[in-house]
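Annex B. Sample input.
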Amino acid sequence: TVEGTDGNGCKNTDDIVITVITTPTVSVAGTTTVCNGENTILTASGADTYTWSPATGLSATTGSNVTANPTTTTTYTVTGLVGTGCSGSTDVTITVNTLPTVSITGNTEFCKGIGSTLTASGADTYTWSPATGLSATTGTAVTASITADQTYTVTGTDANGCQNTDNIAITVNALPNVSVAGDTEICNGESSALTASGADTYTWSPATSLSATTGNSVTASPTADITYTVTGTDGNGCQNTDNIAITVIAAPTVSVAGTTTVCNGENTILTASGADTYTWSPATGLSATTGTSVTASPTADITYTVEGTDG
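Annex B, continued. Sample output.
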């Protein structure tokens, strides 16, 4: 109320009503901790209109809802207005956690059927994909046993829940097609030339009766049945094997029957046994050099040899 007095001493009054508007209490709701690259929706309340600052990382600078996508920890201020312009403000700090640096170690090239251990690092927990050929899809270390080229991805999560990934491409080399050629059946005392193919280098086992244990060609002179294994290694270091079984056939026991003492001008019939076919030598004084029985008519002492061959 104001009371006015003029020069005559006359007075009068007037009133003015002042309305005091309560300053708005502005508040902000939303996630205040994010991983680098993520965003969060901030929602202001308590006023009629809102202004946000700084603009860095914000989808808008006005409105009750904004999306914040800062790359570093940032404090935002929101100012809210009500009525004829009364305002209130509040701050919200968005903490930005860095992503873990995830990496994978392991063989990127191996032979078919061998497998490789893959180990992840840089985070706290890990998830692997795809599951094809993996011993597990979670954990720091997994074993990959695949038959074809494959790329694996590991997703690592740190203590803040932030995630990052790494990839590893694995090349699977085919095994060499190793084979052995050679006689699989020999007579006792004979040899078999064994030749391996399909790889670059070769190792033979067992060493029994072999001329060598390395090389693509070796000579086997076993005295009893035996199976040899050759391991071939190609240029990628991949190995494969082949086997050859050798049967050793005993020599026939050849004998000769007949008179071994004759008078000059007489003859004797010599008969061989123990084999299937026979060859006689020398031809001197013999009626034939082949056959089971021959007639010998030597004119001087002589030794005949018969060689018998079985089936």
